[in-house]
Amino acid sequence: MTNANGNSLAYSIDGGTTFSNSPVFTGLTAGNYDVVVEYTLGSSAACTTVPQTITIAGASPITGTATLTTPYTCTTNGTITVTGVSRRIIAL
Asked: What is the count of structural domains for the chain?
């Protein structure tokens, strides 16, 4: 990612031990992550932010009701209807 001044930004989720050029981290498990952003000017680091702890809570379950609305037979396909699907979304 490049900021408006043309300098680079790097991102860390381990308190600044390792950095990535992408602000997207996938496959994270529940827990605490110490996020640091590093602003670089050319090939040297100009400055880094103070670590900010972000907590990812465990995923909430998806709920809903599955109902057999048309039974499967040797001559017809069955149908299952799923209703009331919900999941609590947590914004960080």
From this structure: 1
